[in-house]
């Protein structure tokens, strides 16, 4: 939740500063609440952020016993002149993809349907197609891209950032494209994680649906001038915990994503 929120404000060019949380349940369990708050606080501390407040609600008429509802919001700061709104994106720009660690925070309804309803697996099951148990892979934390991209924003002329969440590459990239531009993405230019291949195979999910629902192994797309592409890729590849790929370019079009 913290990482997802940080990535969203990062897409505006902002540095995350503070976090507010909302926790609701039928009946508060102090031990669980302590664990939740500790987890959010520790995650914020990794990135120099502070948890400055929030809301805790106990609503037995709304939630079933044992059910917890979590939400959060990040406040970030960016100079007005440096706000990213996609207006600088132009034909010829390069598309750089940063790897995801798994589903992140989207696609779980489909994953549950395939693994638990259709195939009758449990979270502890390990299948040949996957490197870990189904539960371990589904619980992979959402990657926070701010440590990698804030320095890039300072050094280079980044034209846009697209956080690949619900809607996948197909629906998130067009949000930042100006009129007259399409994003052309080269299939096979990055590694698709086994968890996505398993969902598609076991559920017989059409490829088009996968690309609309899942991030497919790309958690953030960086749009940069072609002349700066190689230098930016070189800097990003200095990080061993994220993979960097050149996945396509901006072409003339109507604010859509096309795959080749």
Give an overview of the whole structure.
With 260 residues, this protein is an alpha+beta fold. The protein has two domains: 81 residues, 60s Ribosomal Protein L30, Chain: A; 166 residues, Alpha-Beta Complex (Phosphoribosyl-aminoimidazole Synthetase, Chain A, domain 2), CATH 3.90.650.10. It contains nine helices and nine strands.
Chart the SSEs and their pairings.
Layout: H1 2-10, E1 15-25, H2 30-46, E2 50-58, E3 68-77, E4 94-99, H3 108-118, H4 134-138, H5 146-155, E5 160-163, H6 168-172, E6 181-185, H7 194-203, H8 207-213, E7 218-224, H9 229-236, E8 244-252, E9 257-259
Parallel strand pairs: 1-2, 6-9
Antiparallel strand pairs: 1-3, 4-7, 4-8, 5-7, 6-8
